[in-house]
């Protein structure tokens, strides 16, 4: 590994990767390096000047108050997901009359961190930062595995070089080891330090530190695999690599071609490339890349048939989308919609109530949550619906408005969304079934109450009265069935204008599966709280699956979850429920599973259900999976080999992680299982387990696998370190790295697990 870094790369360690990226010649970045005074805005009344500056590493933004003695803050460019220009956030919209749009911009962070709203002194300065930040983000996205590694080494060097003299003494190295989660005795640390200190100066500089880092991160676990397949122990010839791909990675398609491509893509040594061979460095690069990861790259993009009826897909769905926190006092925000849509969510919820001045508002009724305007929500949906997925978005309306304000709602929907709003059936004829996501690309569908059915609109039966009446049985309020408070079940009046906006998703009250089988229409959607859904699942699982093969069902969290916690969506997917609505604002197992399921198929928000859940005549019951046609259970064997550079959980200087790995299977009830490795004491840097876990899975098509790393604590609950969740069907076999995610679902490079995976039919 060392030779490749020595000559070319050592200057990067100290100087950041700026020299690599043509940054010296970029005027925007030059002015960011000099720094700028901008206003940081938190509200109409909180607007304070801060000095912002790009650090020399071209990776960190530093800012502080102009007042002496105030501490500074920093954030990394890697934390920034997007830059919005102009008045593109609630905060900046609220001060639009004070600062022109061309001076305003918003930095949107990954995960659940609050936006940073800024106003520059001039339009030119704003542009300079907007373009500069975008350039830095683009550079990061285009970085190869190799540059990422250099980047890491540089980051650690800067963190540890406390006195900024560009070299590191032994004391600084010891502090660095603690920062890196390494518990190493002084004698061993000194031995590595002395070996790396080639110039015998008592300090490490440039390439000496690279050497030290390489010795520290030596991957003996990967070396074992490399040597097992290398005939001469020095390199993998192309045929050695082909053997590895065939026997370990279980690749079938044109292995010869693939081995060639891998050498071309990951081998750093030109000499090895000429020999069509791969050195250990190249092998490590390959195993650390997306191709060497556990997630099958062929399932990243859209690979499923998108032309089946909507009810044949699981649909990524959000509950109380407007809430950023809890259900009782939380802050309501348009930002909730933007974040959900930008994560690929395709069904958002809008709780509508009468507001002042004839303008409907959105908030969690009967609570102290703040209120936002309905028209602002519609604007946000119109602007962000199709940024990450072109497939349809469903607006799930919970309507508590008077007829007058319902008309205003209809006006806003028509006026703001225009052609995006689906107002009639696709071909203008009476339909016989639900259209597909493909048919509905770029369309926004309303799910709400409707006067009469879809058929009447084609045979002229809808009376021309301006309002219709219906009994509001099902969702008077979501908390209703939990008896936290009751509303009178009055006849609510519905405006014809709003009713006409509903085409394929008419909200109806659910009586029973038997009633539905005889009377229900394909465009009718019933909603259940999680407890009602569970009851139906227990009492009539196969009926539920059958019902969901013909029409859409929405399931939402119980009203008792005032803390915005989530239920486990898997049990609802087991019954084929498509719209399983979760609190996107709340991190944890529920959202991990949701992110895991929808990370496949282009993250487009639609995942095709297994065939046995789509065909009405196939009677699949999640309680008795062994009874279905084509039942073939599998055995999943996971050898958890090692961990790499796990993040520190405890901020305390001296605390070092005691990691263990838990593997959880989420699927039909028979498949629910968890197993753990041992914990390794005091090593979050490179723990080694070689522990094997085995699971029998009866319905592999529905199974999700969640890897959780925790810091073992014998006296209290283990601390969460990282996790990664994916569908079993998206797993690659063989030796794989799992790139861990934080609690928020954002990546935390270079933290990973190294595992070996086998999936075999149960004989």
TrEMBL record:
InterPro entries for this protein: C2_dom, C2_domain_sf, EF-hand-dom_pair, EF_Hand_1_Ca_BS, EF_hand_dom, PH-like_dom_sf, PH_domain, PI-PLC_fam
Assigned keywords, A-Z: Calcium, Cytoplasm, Endoplasmic reticulum, Hydrolase, Lipid degradation, Lipid metabolism, Membrane, Metal-binding, Nucleus, Repeat, Transducer
Gene that this polypeptide is encoded by: plcd4a
GO function terms (MF aspect): calcium ion binding; phosphatidylinositol-4,5-bisphosphate phospholipase C activity
Domain C2: 614-742
Pfam families with a match to the protein in the record: C2, EF-hand_like, PH, PI-PLC-X, PI-PLC-Y
One annotated GO biological process: lipid catabolic process
Listed EC numbers: 3.1.4.11
Subcellular location: Cytoplasm; Endoplasmic reticulum; Membrane; Nucleus
Listed name of the protein: Phosphoinositide phospholipase C
UniProt main location, coarse: cytoplasm
Organism: Dicentrarchus labrax
GO cellular component, one term: nucleus
Residue ranges of domain PI-PLC Y-box in the record: 498-614
Residue ranges constituting the PH domain according to the UniProt record: 30-138
Enzyme class: hydrolase
Catalysed reactions listed for this entry: a 1,2-diacyl-sn-glycero-3-phospho-(1D-myo-inositol-4,5-bisphosphate) + H2O = 1D-myo-inositol 1,4,5-trisphosphate + a 1,2-diacyl-sn-glycerol + H(+); a 1,2-diacyl-sn-glycero-3-phospho-(1D-myo-inositol) + H2O = 1D-myo-inositol 1-phosphate + a 1,2-diacyl-sn-glycerol + H(+)
Cofactor(s) essential for the protein: Ca(2+)
């Amino acid at each position: 590994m060392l030779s490749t870094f020595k000559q070319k790369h050592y200057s990067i360690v100290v100087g950041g990767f700026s020299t690599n990226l043509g940054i010296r010649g970029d005027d925007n970045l030059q002015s960011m390096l000099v720094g700028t005074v901008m206003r940081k805005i938190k509200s109409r009344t909180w607007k304070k000047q801060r000095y912002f500056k790009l650090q020399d590493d071209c990776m960190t933004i530093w800012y502080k108050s102009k007042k002496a003695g105030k501490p500074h803050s920093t954030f990394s460019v890697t934390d920034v997901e997007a830059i919005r220009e102009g008045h593109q956030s609630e905060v900046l919209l609220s001060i639009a009359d004070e600062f022109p749009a061309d001076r305003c911009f918003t930095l949107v962070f990954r995960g659940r961190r609050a936006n940073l709203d800024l106003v520059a002194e001039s339009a030119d300065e704003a542009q300079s930062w907007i373009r500069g930040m975008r350039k830095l983000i683009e550079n990061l996205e285009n970085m190869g595995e190799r540059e990422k590694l250099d980047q890491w080494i540089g980051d650690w060097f800067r963190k540890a070089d406390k006195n900024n003299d560009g070299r590191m003494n032994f004391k600084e190295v010891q502090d660095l080891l603690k920062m890196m989660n390494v518990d190493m005795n002084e004698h061993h640390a000194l031995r590595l330090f002395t070996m790396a200190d080639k110039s015998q100066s008592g300090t490490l500089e440039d390439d000496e530190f690279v050497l030290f880092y390489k010795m520290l991160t030596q991957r003996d676990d990967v070396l074992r695999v490399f040597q097992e397949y290398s005939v001469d122990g020095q390199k993998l010839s192309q045929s050695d690599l082909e053997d590895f791909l065939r026997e370990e990675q279980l690749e079938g398609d044109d292995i010869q071609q693939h081995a060639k491509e891998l050498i071309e893509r990951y081998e750093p040594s030109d000499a090895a490339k000429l020999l069509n061979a791969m050195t250990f460095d190249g092998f490590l690069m390959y195993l650390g890349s997306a191709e060497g990861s556990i997630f099958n790259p062929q399932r990243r993009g859209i690979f499923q048939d998108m032309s089946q009826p909507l009810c044949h897909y699981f649909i990524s769905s959000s509950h109380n989308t407007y809430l950023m926190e809890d259900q009782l006092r939380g802050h309501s925000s348009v930002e909730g919609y933007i974040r959900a849509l930008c994560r690929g969510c395709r069904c958002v919820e809008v709780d509508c109530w009468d507001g002042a001045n004839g303008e409907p508002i959105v908030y969690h009724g009967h609570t102290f949550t703040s209120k936002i305007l309905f028209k602002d929500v519609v604007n946000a949906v119109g602007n962000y619906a199709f940024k990450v997925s072109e497939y349809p978005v469903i607006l799930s309306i919970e309507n508590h408005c008077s007829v007058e304000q319902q008309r205003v709602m209809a006006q806003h929907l028509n006026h703001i969304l225009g052609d995006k709003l689906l107002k009639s059936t696709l071909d203008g004829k009476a339909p016989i079934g639900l259209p597909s996501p493909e048919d509905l690309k770029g369309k926004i569908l309303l799910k709400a109450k409707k006067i009469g059915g879809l058929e009447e609109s084609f045979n002229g039966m809808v009376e021309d009265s301006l309002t219709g009446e219906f009994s509001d049985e099902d969702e008077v309020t979501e908390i209703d069935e939990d008896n936290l408070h009751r509303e009178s079940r009055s006849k609510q009046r519905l405006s014809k204008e709003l009713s006409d906006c509903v085409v394929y998703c008419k909200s109806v009250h659910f009586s029973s599966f038997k009633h539905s089988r005889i009377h229900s229409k394909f465009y009718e959607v019933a909603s259940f709280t999680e407890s009602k859904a569970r009851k139906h699942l227990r009492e009539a699982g196969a009926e539920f699956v059958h019902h969901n093969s013909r029409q859409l069902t929405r399931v939402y969290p119980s009203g008792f979850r005032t803390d915005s916690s989530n239920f486990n969506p898997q049990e609802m997917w087991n019954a084929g429920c498509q719209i399983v609505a979760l609190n996107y604002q709340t991190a944890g197992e529920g959202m991990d599973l949701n992110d895991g399921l929808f990370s496949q198929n282009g993250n487009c928000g639609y995942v095709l259900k297994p065939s046995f859940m789509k065909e009405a005549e196939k009677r699949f019951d999640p309680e008795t999976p062994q009874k279905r046609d084509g039942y073939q259970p599998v055995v999943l064997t996971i050898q958890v080999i090692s961990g790499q550079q796990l993040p520190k959980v405890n901020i305390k200087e001296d605390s070092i992680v005691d990691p263990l790995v838990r593997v959880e299977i989420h699927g039909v009830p028979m498949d629910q299982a968890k197993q753990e490795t041992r914990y390794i004491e005091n090593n979050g840097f490179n723990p080694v387990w070689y522990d094997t876990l085995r699971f029998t899975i009866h319905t592999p098509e529905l199974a999700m696998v969640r890897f959780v790393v925790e810091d073992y604590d014998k006296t209290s609950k283990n601390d969460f370190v990282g996790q990664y969740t994916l569908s079993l069907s998206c797993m690659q076999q063989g030796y794989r790295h799992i790139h861990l995610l934080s609690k928020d679902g954002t990546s935390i490079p270079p933290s990973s697990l190294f595992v070996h995976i086998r999936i075999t039919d149960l004989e």
